[in-house]
Design brief:
The chain is an all-alpha fold. It contains 5 helices and no strands.
């Protein structure tokens, strides 16, 4: 800022020379040769220094605006990646739920089967006890299978087994 103030305070500033210096650095000689953004245009009658200063400022703003838009594009890309990742997470959660449901169903089947085996084993144990009891009664009491069938009603497999099959 000090150099601008010094420029204003100097009495021998030649604006014509300044415009010539700027024009020599800048390609093209007319204001029309410089492409400006659509949303601005030079005001008629503006000096070359004013026009060039305005152009420099608008180019800085336009550059910053394009960078902001680029950040927006990057943000959109990041959001799309996030959405894709979220979809994958939802798929993984659904798979886990299906797997857990499958495990529960398998556990239920095994649970039921074990209980059925336990009931069957208990039935076999009772049948064996009844068959043993019948065998001891046969050795002490009557010897005919028909007589044994009439004496007791046996549950489960014992009802289907005859003494001749046991011997």
């Amino acid at each position: 800022m000090a150099s601008v103030e010094q420029l204003r305070r100097r009495e021998g500033v030649n604006l014509v020379q300044l415009e010539a210096d700027i024009a020599s650095v800048r390609p093209g000689s007319s204001l029309a040769s410089i492409a400006l953004p659509d949303y601005v245009e030079h005001t008629e009658g503006v000096t070359r220094v004013g026009a060039l200063s305005a152009e420099a400022v608008i180019r800085d703003y336009e550059s910053a605006a394009k960078e902001i838009e680029a950040m927006g594009t990057e943000l959109i890309d990041a959001a799309q990646k996030c959405e894709a990742l979220t979809a994958q997470v939802h798929d993984a959660i659904a798979f886990m739920r299906e797997t857990a449901a499958g495990y529960r169903e398998e556990g239920r089947k095994i649970f039921k089967r074990i209980e059925e085996c336990a009931l069957f084993t208990e039935d076999v144990r009772k049948t064996c006890e009844q068959v043993k009891r019948r065998m001891t009664e046969v050795s002490v009491g009557p010897s005919s299978d028909d007589e044994l069938d009439q004496d007791s009603e046996l549950p489960g497999i014992a009802a289907k087994v005859t003494m001749s099959e046991v011997k």
